[in-house]
Write a structure and sequence with these properties.
By secondary structure, the chain is of the alpha/beta class. The chain has a single domain, classed as Metallo-beta-lactamase, Chain A, CATH 3.60.15.10. It contains seven helices and 15 strands. The strands form three sheets. It has a six-stranded mixed beta sheet, covered by helices on one side.
Length: 286
């Protein structure tokens, strides 16, 4: 069965968020919602997230889940705001526990910061099944970009987070803590085993050569034409390319604030004695 998919582009981070709904029941999920954030001023905003809320309300949808494909490094999650406005449960892959453990040390977080994923309402393990109305859905562990990356297969549509970009954009980097190019290659091969006509929705499009933004492709198009991993490229070829390419990439602008918030399911660190929330800047750790 085919879900209805509505995409929303957050231009500052080139991030796509999705509202995915079952036409027969009006049940829906939201995937990777974005909170506006200005790193220069430290101010956050909800205008982008309000677009998702307005669409859900206009379509009279009922939100069951707010799904994160991983703890993003390029934007801050708007999941708590979405839940406040629309309901639903915030979920992510169970690999988040490993990510929390790693970054608790990097950011020297508060001693009682839990690394069991309990900040989220639910953790999906690989292969866990759920429903969006009458649509069958399943979580697919696809680590490599990050150790917690999880794709969501909903009906005939798969939402792959950062693991794959459009075919002319290639694949995600693997040099963040916990990333691994060989692991990403194997995860992508798993996605390539899905039926050829499975619709594939990506989280980012950086518009190679200035083309118009795109967010949807198919498994067969990726398998045949992805410039990094398609056309039968071997694991050794991919790993060599990916590791060399990653050495030339700058760190994402928002990686330091984003990770601190996203491993908390989109919540700010606890306010200090003056009532203000603070984000840390680890020196010489990256």
């Amino acid at each position: 069965m085919k879900p209805t998919v509505q995409a929303f582009l957050h231009e500052p981070s080139s991030t796509y968020s999705y509202v995915v709904s079952d036409p027969s029941s009006q049940r829906a999920v939201i995937i990777d919602p974005v909170l506006d954030f200005d790193a220069n001023s430290g101010r956050s905003g909800k205008e982008s997230a309000k677009q998702l809320v307005q669409y859900v309300q206009d379509q009279a949808l009922n939100i069951d889940w707010i799904l994160e494909t991983h703890a993003h490094a390029d934007h801050i999650s708007a999941a708590p705001y979405i839940r406040q406005q629309l309901g639903g449960r915030i979920a992510i892959g169970s690999g988040i526990c490993e990510v929390q453990q790693r970054f608790k040390d990097i950011f020297n977080l508060e001693p009682d910061f839990p690394v069991d994923g309990s900040q989220f309402d639910h953790l999906f393990n690989d292969g866990d099944r759920f429903h969006v109305g009458s649509l069958e859905a399943r979580g697919l562990a696809t680590p490599g970009h990050t150790s917690d990356s999880l794709s969501y297969l909903i009906g005939d549509a798969v939402f792959v987070g950062d693991s794959l970009f459009m075919p002319d954009g290639g694949t995600a980097r693997c040099d963040f803590p916990g990333g691994d190019a060989a692991t990403l290659y194997q995860s992508i091969q798993r996605l390539f085993e899905l039926p050829d006509d499975t619709r594939m929705f990506i989280c980012h499009d950086y518009q190679p050569d200035g083309r118009e933004p795109r967010f949807q492709t198919t498994v067969s198009e990726q398998r045949e034409h992805n410039i990094h991993v398609g056309a039968g490229k071997t694991e050794q070829e991919f790993v060599s390319m990916r590791e060399q390419r990653d050495q030339s990439l700058p760190m994402p602008t928002l990686i330091l604030p984003a990770i601190q918030v996203n491993i908390r399911a989109g919540h700010w660190p606890p306010a200090e004695s003056n009532g203000t929330h603070y984000l840390k800047l680890p020196v010489n750790r990256f």
